[in-house]
Amino acid sequence: MDTIASLFSFITTPVSWVIVQFHTVYGKIFGPDTGWAWGLSIVSLVILIRICLIPLFVKQIKATRAMQTLQPEMKKIQERYKNDKQRQSEEMMKLYKETGTNPLSSCLPILAQSPFFFALYHVLNGIANGDTIGVINQSLLESAQKAHIFGAPLAAKFTDSASEATALGASLTDVRVVTAIMIVLMSASQFFTQRQLMTKNVDTSVKTPFMQQQKMLMYVFPVMFAVFGINFPVGVLVYWLTTNVWTMGQQMYVIHNNPTPGSKAQAAYLERLYKHVSHAGKTRRRSEKTIIKAIVAKGRDRNEAERKFINGLTKAGLAAQADGTVAKSDAQTVVETAEDGTTTTTSAAAAKRQQPKRQSKSQRQTGGPKAAGETTSLSKSDEPEDAKPSGAARPSAPQAGTGGGRSKAQSGQRKGGPQRPKSPSKK
Q: Is the dihedral of CA 335, 337, 343, 348 positive or negative?
């Protein structure tokens, strides 16, 4: 571990300088040798780093959603070229290039903060060994060695022996109790963060191997934190616990205000947005306009929650506009989305005019009134004689001796003999 940490020694001096500056401020409040001064300095370092990493976090969200969108296409490529791994890789890279997606973008925040993590580990390990490092001189080193967090020194580890704990001015029991509690909290926060992502902010309409991988990581990451955590100093555990809590809160904010399309979080968000918009008659924030604009632009590709939102606005007499705003639909067109994704654009007045008039019982029995210009007559060769209405005049049967031999026998009649009368019930 020391070899890995030494690879990031180029950032050790900046990290130690930031910790010292925060320690100067907190030392005036809590005392320079207290665990509060040094512990809060580490917490402030984490907050400062995570604030700087917010743009990378936004890219991570976009990359993760783009990967979720591409999962069906990736699965098709895998099935099509399952026997040709090289062609499969080429098609995958082509798909990434066409869509502008980078699979490594989802790992950017972790990769970006790893140098700070190892630099902090290097600093705390130097404090445990009594070595000055970075801008931490001898006086600051002695002050850090005296600092305890709930009875555990900053440089103490769960795997330390009783003699090592005594050398740092603490008992082995205090060190192991404090480190065990922090490891459990660190693993639990990681598990809750990943579980929140899988249960609320994943498109449930698409079942792909990517979701199975994320579900597996939900259990793998906490175990990894627990295994490696027993070798981390207390100060590093403070660092990781703080960054996990920050990630959990940051993700909760994103899920609540900008959920993934097709997820349970989106359905809950659109329900809240519908209640507000139907009550106020307008949107209140730019983020709401952005989401409504994206829903309108989807057209027939809307999911169930989005169709329910648009139809709800329609029933409330409102219409979602292409720019993301909401306006009254009395004199405007209203877009209704059916279950199959088809859209119908009408207005309230037109919809009322399009309703057919109620027909009387006699009209329903006779087939209703004929529309203007409708052709009801058939050609003589196509229309059977007995298909005419009962009220129409029927030609009389030819009488014997009056030229009946010259006239052609009608359809359904016998030739040269007495004709069988037609049944009035048959047509």
A: negative
